[in-house]
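Input (structure):
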């Protein structure tokens, strides 16, 4: 039996994921229709059947990043701490499987290489992440579940940095899962409200 023919949408996802892999391992300057074709085993002509230009490919890469990141947000009806825990697990795993996302988001050089609309959309993704984490921390503090002796705003970079560290772990999948559980447990232990923590000193955004 011959290979099952892939839909155009499936092929576009494969190509954008391959583009993210090239960005992660070789940098955005190495991304071209030729390198992408070699990565997935297609001809350059086949690439152009799915993307009219490298700019169109980059726009699709940004859209793929948005889809991957959006899928890591848990249901808003969950309690704050559970939302935060699920988010850290999902986001670190998703970004760990698409390390090109980190390179795109964290490198100003890579952002400048994207179409202007793409850079703006990625910046919006970062802003949404920060707002989500801050909301969870503030709700957790209000509920007495997270420590309130430190400003919520100072805890957000710590949480986001933990996500990045977990995503960049070189461990194999099973070891990475165990590492993530251990790190997440330690992070939540540090964030949990200590019984002697004063609550009157909490500072938060108005």
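Output (sequence):
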């Amino acid at each position: 039996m011959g290979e099952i023919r892939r839909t155009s949408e499936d092929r576009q996802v494969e190509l954008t994921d391959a583009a993210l892999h090239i960005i992660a391992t070789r940098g955005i300057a190495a991304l071209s229709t030729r390198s992408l074709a070699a990565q997935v085993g297609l001809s350059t002509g086949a690439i152009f059947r799915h993307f009219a230009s490298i700019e169109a490919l980059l726009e699709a890469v940004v859209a793929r990043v948005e889809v991957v990141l959006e899928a890591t947000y848990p249901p808003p009806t969950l309690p704050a701490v559970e939302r935060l825990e699920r988010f850290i697990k999902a986001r670190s795993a998703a970004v760990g499987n698409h390390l090109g996302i980190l390179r795109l988001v964290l490198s100003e050089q890579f952002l400048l290489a994207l179409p202007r609309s793409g850079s703006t959309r990625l910046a919006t993704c970062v802003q949404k992440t920060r707002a989500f984490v801050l909301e969870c921390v503030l709700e957790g503090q209000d509920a007495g579940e997270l420590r309130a002796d430190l400003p919520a705003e100072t805890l957000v970079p710590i949480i986001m940095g933990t996500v990045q560290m977990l995503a960049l772990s070189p461990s194999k999948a099973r070891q990475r899962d165990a590492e993530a559980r251990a790190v997440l447990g330690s992070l939540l232990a540090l964030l949990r409200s200590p019984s002697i923590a004063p609550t009157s000193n909490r500072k938060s955004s108005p």
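Notes: Residues 61-191 form a domain with the Tetracycline Repressor; domain 2 fold (CATH 1.10.357.10). The CA atoms of residues 8 and 49 lie 9 Å apart.
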